[in-house]
# Entry
Amino acid sequence: MVGRPVDHRRRAELLDAAVDHAAEHGFADLSWRTLASALGVSSTTLVHHFGTKEELLAAVLARLRDRMTLAVGDAPDLAAAARAVWAQSSDPARRPTFRLFFAVLGQALQAPEAYAGFLDVVGVEWTGALCRAQGPGTDPAEAARRATLVVATLRGLLLDLLAGGDEARVHGAAEAYLAAL
# Structure
């Protein structure tokens, strides 16, 4: 007997709702029952759309990465690209996504074997975009070093902002850093 096929539109809706729920309530204690109840569906519905809890968590992490993707467009240089990254990542509307990111990152650092896929790609998109913004004539190793420094600095500033740091102080620090680029 063949089961009914997965409705991919419904799966995407459930996945977005699961990420929203995790952003609001945390990722560490995400359980089938709690999540199903919060989404107004049965545990069986989640199993049908995601298979196992591990597959659901992997899908949540992938969607989180998608939400964290920042557009630098055709920024003319590293400074403009870094400014675009900061403007987007520090946007108050995106704070729940980045709070969830830092929560998951903390868990991943505690249990790297369970989050290997997440750790392998965390920051790759930002670093790659910032490398490209430096232009094709830039030495790739130097571009990667600069991009890494920008990502690390902006992540630190973002963490300070999310931790309840004085917004004016954090944005002022970001502006000073970005101006120095």
